[in-house]
From TrEMBL:
It comes from Podospora anserina (strain S / ATCC MYA-4624 / DSM 980 / FGSC 10383). Its EC number is 3.4.16.-. Keywords: Carboxypeptidase, Glycoprotein, Hydrolase, Protease. It is an enzyme of class 3 (hydrolase). One of its GO terms (molecular function) is serine-type carboxypeptidase activity. SUPFAM superfamilies: alpha/beta-Hydrolases. This is Carboxypeptidase. PROSITE patterns: CARBOXYPEPT_SER_SER. One of its GO terms (biological process) is proteolysis. InterPro entries: AB_hydrolase_fold, Peptidase_S10, Ser_caboxypep_ser_AS. Pfam families: Peptidase_S10.
Length: 501
């Protein structure tokens, strides 16, 4: 029942004038490839913005947001100096192999500032599209961070352009703005569209499981390391949502090579990630507690509340939480979830609980956003994914987005605990405002995972006042309190979960 995220897989049914614009941008990019590899990408984004102006999304473009973000960035300069305000260093990664990927940081359409040294394009051998931003931070020498969005099938340019890249294109704005908190300020980062067939990566999707995905990525990674001369670098991997499958499998595959020249995997970060073995675990089981905790955002009448409480009780959801979301855990979760009867049939009411609540929330608030439950009207269209969330498939191409044929088991079975044990450096963070993947679902999955020779966490996140929600943590917006145990750090935060992971 996992709800597909909105991605860079939207409809591109352009009118003729917009198609002409995109074709011109592509021709310009091909003509001067060494200066600007990403003109097709920005051409796409320009077209998306034009789509908003022509009615394919909300007309509520808010140019004032750009000025506000820039103003906020300037006001923080005293306490958090922006290295981008200083002259950029020489191109440290420019060589005979990487020249063809070099991006002219002053020639990106609609970006009226220099984004600095970066490299982008599809690797000719594996055809995975990437955009690499070296860090100006001298302390980040000999290390690289990989960023992956989820989906499955979401472009990692969502993370680049709307979360933590050097420049952002926030929803509702008419042009990109500089990001004074870009992750590349701290360390070098590469955004990768993977597996093949995702985003701007070309080729026909052929993989059927995470092991094949990891093998494909490692082949591309070796070429990437050789291209930019990164042999012996420490490698960190991070991602969100369905990257809770991608990252652990890729990280574990790197560790299993015992090759520190190319695969010196040193840590992993997962945000609002899919790690468990049943999406019901993430959605319906924690949903009543989620609604009750955020009651002001779910102002249901007593009749509907009685209905979902009765269904929750009949399905045994709250009972399961009471028995298994405890510290330390008493046992693994039952092999059959409560809504499954002895003959193997599934009770429809149990599997429908999450959908009932979503439908009721939308009736009360047409602007309700299941990815960020505090969002309010008017909803602003996203230049990377219109409100309609229409899927985009190139003519004659096989669809990758939201594929349901992943033959691998959940990452908590062996990939994730293996990475924890081998690196002793894994962070799992989760947003409190996410209805698609409620935090209690992730905590329940962690309590069902064995690592470091033990099942789950033995303490309730080192806090003193447990919430009814079953989470023991200080909930302060944009801040988190970490629980550390056997080198796994778990945090629950109240910041937003993006629509496409």
């Amino acid at each position: 029942m996992y709800h597909p995220q909105r991605c860079l897989t939207i409809s591109l049914q352009f009118d003729p004038s917009l198609k002409s614009l995109l074709l011109k941008l592509r021709k310009l990019g091909n003509k001067n490839e060494s200066k600007m590899r990403l003109i097709p990408v920005l051409g796409f984004l320009l077209t998306a913005v034009e789509g908003l102006r022509t009615g394919r999304g909300s007309p509520l473009l808010r140019p004032g947001i750009s000025k506000h973000i820039n103003k906020v960035g300037k006001s923080t300069a005293a306490v958090f100096p922006d290295p981008q305000d200083k002259p950029f260093p020489k191109h440290n990664f420019l060589n005979a192999n990487s020249t063809k990927f070099a991006v002219n940081g002053t020639a990106i359409p609609d970006v009226d500032f220099d984004v600095g040294e970066s490299y982008a394009g599809p690797n000719e051998q594996s055809n995975l599209f990437f955009w690499f931003f070296p860090s100006p931070n001298k302390a980040a020498n000999k290390e690289i961070l990989i960023w992956l969005n989820g989906g499955p099938g979401c472009s990692s340019f969502e993370g680049l352009l709307q979360e933590h890249g050097p420049f952002l294109w926030p929803p509702g704005t008419i042009k990109p703005v500089r990001n004074p908190w870009s992750w590349h300020i701290l360390t070098s980062i590469v955004y990768v569209d993977q597996p093949g067939g995702t985003g701007f990566s070309t080729g026909v999707p052929t993989i059927t499981n995470e092991e094949e995905l990891a093998a494909q990525f490692l082949g591309w990674w070796k070429n990437f390391v050789d291209t930019f001369g990164m042999q012996g670098y420490k490698v960190y991997i991070s991602g969100e949502s369905y990257a809770g499958m991608y990252c652990p499998y890729i990280a574990n595959a790197m560790l299993n090579t015992n090759d520190t020249t190319y695969h010196q995997l040193s840590g992993m970060y997962l945000g609002d990630a899919v790690i468990g073995d049943n999406t019901q675990l993430y959605q319906s089981i924690p949903m009543l507690r989620f609604v009750e905790y955020h009651s002001s955002l779910f102002p249901f009448n007593n009749t509907f509340l009685d209905k979902i409480r009765t269904t929750d009780a009949e399905c045994g959801y709250s009972s399961l939480l009471d028995n298994h979301l405890v510290y330390p855990p008493i046992s693994h979760l039952p092999s059959a979830l409560p809504e499954v009867s002895e003959n193997g049939t599934v009770t429809e009411e149990c599997t429908s609980l999450w959908w009932w609540i979503l439908e009721a929330a939308l009736r009360l608030n047409p602007c309700f956003d299941m990815y960020h439950i505090t969002a309010s009207c008017p909803r602003v269209s996203d230049v990377l994914g219109f409100l309609a969330g229409i899927d985009y498939v190139l003519e004659g191409k096989k669809r990758y987005f939201d594929r349901g044929d992943d033959g691998s088991g959940p990452s908590i079975i062996y990939a994730l605990p293996s990475v924890i044990d081998k690196t002793q450096n894994v962070i799992i963070a989760h947003g409190q405002l996410d209805m698609v993947l409620p935090s209690n679902g992730s905590l329940l999955a962690i309590q069902n995972m064995t690592w470091g020779g033990k099942l789950g966490r033995v303490d309730c996140m080192n806090c003193t006042t447990p919430l009814r929600l079953g989470i023991c943590i200080t909930l302060i917006r944009h801040r988190m309190r970490w629980a550390r145990g056997r080198r796994l750090r778990v945090g629950v935060i109240t910041s937003r979960r993006r629509a496409c992971r």
